[in-house]
Specification:
2 copies of one chain form a homodimer. The first copy, chain A, has 309 residues and is α/β, with parallel strands linked by helices. Chain A contains 11 helices and 16 strands. The complex binds zinc ion (ZN) (2 copies).
């Protein structure tokens, strides 16, 4: 599991940062990429990575401001042009379907794959399968905006096949029963407890990716115990009033959320063009007394999210 | 007058060429920029030029395929964000207004300037003022598509002020009468013929910028005697059948149009990603026996369009 930042700027593209898009790379976990927001020229940024558009399985839109969605029609078209056939689902606030459908209609674009929309109206679980659960909550932005919490299910412990083989227990239905944690009596009377043959379960990872927002309670809920929190930092530590007026956050507010939510790491993005070079990194340094595992990300940064321990 | 190519590729962006947009720079002529098509990331390309979005006065869209319009909402938003106040007019096929308005509505974008649409239904003059006339004609593409002919009005000759001053004729109403070509009798009885005091008139320049198209008669009409013809060349000389099937042109067909229309120069654009490096330049070399003043343009090429003679 990796997070690749395709665009880390706020509002308009600059030479240093493109507008927002974040790729959650789940290649080992499900041979898929999930995108969070698709600002203009996201497909251009993808040309600079190893991401193949056909692998994009789901797209989660936080809100409908242009710098978060104007790259969507082009990306969808190119995914089709490059022969993507697998279905794609787009989650986002009401209006996202209208925007995409009008764009595809006027341009007479016929996609080579089924496109599904899930328009969000409230918080809660929006996707769940064998390996992942995704939930969303409303944030506090000028326009309806959601944050996402991506929870990987715990990996059950592996069956200790080597140990069973050393004991000359041949593979067969017994292995399955032991893996399920059952107690089994063999033909020779030996009693085996499944728990003795199962390794440690591995905690699934949790990533929270929030949209543009003022500091608010739902951010804590989404980020609770997350390995990684991706949070906007449109403003610097001392600019709380500006942040409030423009419905955004300061780096200090993001750090407070990270601390309260007890996350592993805080990644600051949605960086204003007012902060370039050293000034951008300052956004993180300023708040390390509040939450030390904080860093500002740049376009094309790839952040690994390893298993704990 | 200069033509700056912001995107010269076909269909999807590549690392070498962005999708279509062409800037006609009329800074000396009217302190304005006119854009022809706005593919995705046109505003990103503009960041690499000296063009200021607030100077964009008119946008002409040839057709609504995604690679020609998906950059429009982002460009309009950034022009506003950067404080553009001057009105902007968009000309294009039916549907362009719907696309732009839905994009601005769902993203809750309020522009800082008046935006006007002129949807085209047929060929003819679509704009005329003191200095320029623009007309359009339908082309032959899979979707409704227009080409544009931009005609600069002839510059009348300048009044030879120095010559009048040498003759000790004081400035006043007489100067205006002479400039208008009239014959004037001075108080001392001297008779002056205005034509003796007016310099050579300067022919206005003509540029034809066509959208995606098969070879067709309207292209000749639009390009007739133009100083510069900008024509697509999605396919190479020998691929006439492919070009026909995909509603595009070969470089040879573009050259034939240029020759028949008696243009000054032919600029080939809308180059497929199948042609990179030398292979792209071959598109022009192949057809120099038909029309010698042919060249393939690249992203960010600036072509000067000087007065004749
Ligand atoms: Zn926003
Ligand atoms: Zn086209």
């Amino acid at each position: 599991m990796q997070i690749e930042f395709l665009g880390t700027g706020a509002g308009s593209p600059s030479k240093q940062r493109n507008v927002t898009s974040i790729a959650l790379k789940l290649l080992e976990e499900r041979n898929a990429i999930w995108l969070f927001d698709v600002g203009e020229a996201t497909q251009h940024q993808i040309l600079r990575t190893t991401i193949r558009p056909r692998k994009i399985e789901k797209i989660f839109i936080t809100h409908l401001h242009g710098d978060h969605i104007f790259g969507l029609p082009g990306l969808l078209s190119s995914r089709s042009f490059q022969g993507g056939n697998e279905p794609l689902t787009i989650y986002g606030p009401r209006g996202i379907e209208d925007f995409v459908k009008v764009s595809l209609r006027v341009s007479e674009t016929k996609l080579s794959y089924p496109l599904k929309f899930v328009e969000l109206t409230d918080g809660g679980v929006i996707f769940k399968d064998k390996t992942f659960t995704v939930s969303c909550e409303k944030l506090d932005h000028k326009i309806e905006c959601f944050g996402y919490r991506i929870v990987e299910h715990d990996h059950p412990g592996e069956l200790k096949v080597e140990k069973l083989k050393e004991m000359n227990i041949p593979s067969g239905p017994v292995y399955g029963q032991l893996k399920a944690g059952k107690t089994v009596t063999l033909e020779d009377g030996t009693i085996l407890d499944g728990h003795d043959f199962i390794g440690m379960p591995q905690k699934g990872r949790i990533v929270a990716i929030l949209g543009d927002t003022r500091k608010n309670g739902n951010s804590i809920k989404l980020a609770h115990n997350a390995d990684v929190l991706v949070h906007e930092s449109t403003f610097a530590k001392g600019e709380g009033r500006m942040a409030r007026n423009y419905y955004h956050s300061t780096s200090a507010q993001a750090a407070q959320i990270a601390k309260t939510a007890n996350v592993g790491r805080l990644l600051l993005t949605h960086i204003s063009a007012r902060y370039t070079g050293r000034a951008a990194y300052e956004l993180a340094y300023q708040v390390r007394d509040v939450f030390s595992a904080t860093r500002v990300v740049n376009d094309l940064d790839v952040i690994d999210v390893p298993f704990k321990g």
